[in-house]
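Page header: ASSEMBLY MODEL / two components / 532 residues total.
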Amino acid sequence: MTSTLDPDAEAESTADAETDPDATERSRPNRVDCTDPDTDADGEPQPHTIRLELADQPGQLLDALEPISANGGNLLSIFHERGNVTPRGRIPVEIDVEATPDRFDAIVAALRDEGVNVVQAGAEHYAEEVVVLLVGHLVDTDLSDTLRRIEDCSATSIDDFSLNAPEGRSDTSSARLRMATRAGEATKALSIVHEIAEEKDLHVVEPLAGGAV
Amino acid sequence: MTDSKRLAVVGAGAVGGSVVELAADYGHSVVAFADSSSAVVDDDGIDTGTALDRKASEGHVGDGDPQDALAADYDVLVEATPTTLGDANPGFSHLRTALERDRHVVLANKGPVAERYADVRDLERDSQGRVRFEATVGGAIPIVSTVEDLSPSHVTAARGVLNGTANFILSRMAAEGIDYEHVLAEAQDLGVAEADPTFDVEGTDAALKCVILANVLSEGEREFTLEDAEVEGITNVPGSALELAAEDGRTIRLVGEATRDGIRVGPRLVPQNAALAVTGTRNIVQLETDHAGQLNLSGRGAGGPETASAVLGDVGRLE
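Prediction written out in full:
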């Protein structure tokens, strides 16, 4: 969730969506997923983010949610930013919805028909963040290849990377990767990291499953 | 108040010795006490002080044959011999002997319930005696009895830090920025790590405890042994990895996870302020439940008196 709360990113994407009605289409994910083609195939449910601005009146949120369920969307999360009122006095709401592309278009159309102010819809939302450590001969096993393959193969973006090689490049070193994945994809991203690590004889230190602490 | 029981204690290490020493405090008498080469048996209750002194000074508890202790007239056999893998003997055969005599068994030895859980339950079914094993998981911490109270079917997962030696090493490495070999040497000097620390640092000990928890959770639906566990130790965790974790507000702990579907033990990233990030030799178990949310049980996971308190707690729970 943290990436969507970045005020800069928000301002940018909001402006984009308002001036360019095709933003929805352009920003739809088109990453290649080489392990499980099914999940990215057209017609499969995908997570989408919708940003709305609602008047500060009772019942507004409920009215805005109705078209989502009515059109077969699966509500993943709602972030109601009451403390962050817009200059026009409206309350920003961010909704994550899982739906097939067709249904998602119908949801957005229905929201607009109902007079809901949709400021952004459809940008791929990296909903889950996973931090892992890799330990081993990272440099000698082609670090850039490791990172590229993680990004290529798992609908994952590496947001942040740190290498700690106190003994120089030839000895054991450690790396920290902050990966952003789509909702529900973190497990798959981890399994790809494991696969690459096994091939290169690296050790993976991962967080607990399900975000448990 | 619990009824007074007559105990036979087999195994005279830190745990067995502490059980013998503390039994009277809990209202029980010790009628037999054995180590691997000797035994002392007295139907009126052994002189515990003398037996413990002899063990300390001469290396054996008495003049009798160890088999005499198994044949003594006791209510509860306390099995505190070292954990063995595979057939889990001699611990398993001690348990069998007691159950066939319709006596209760309280285990401090992990072997029988980690490696032969189904066999233990089969023998128990045909016996008037019951088997309890709180002391096998997490030392003093009441984990097995808590799962029983919650009902195993309502506990979806158990995870935790279950090896004090590995946790001491990881927390010292993180706090002092010193490498594995130096911390291990320090731990050995302090008596926190054994001369051969393999069992602890390779994750085997934590895995056995998780296997036992998985057996408890699955209630006989599926039997788990060490072979079913995916295990990685801490010997591959360098200081550089702990540094990177700390920069991000995290640390590394050897965490074991047990569910009805399996067991995993390995170094995991956890937030520094998380309940699981206990320091030093402290242990913690986190239970995920259907109706009671998450429970965190933390305390001393090893030590003679600590583990003996779990053994004597089990004795008190027997009918």
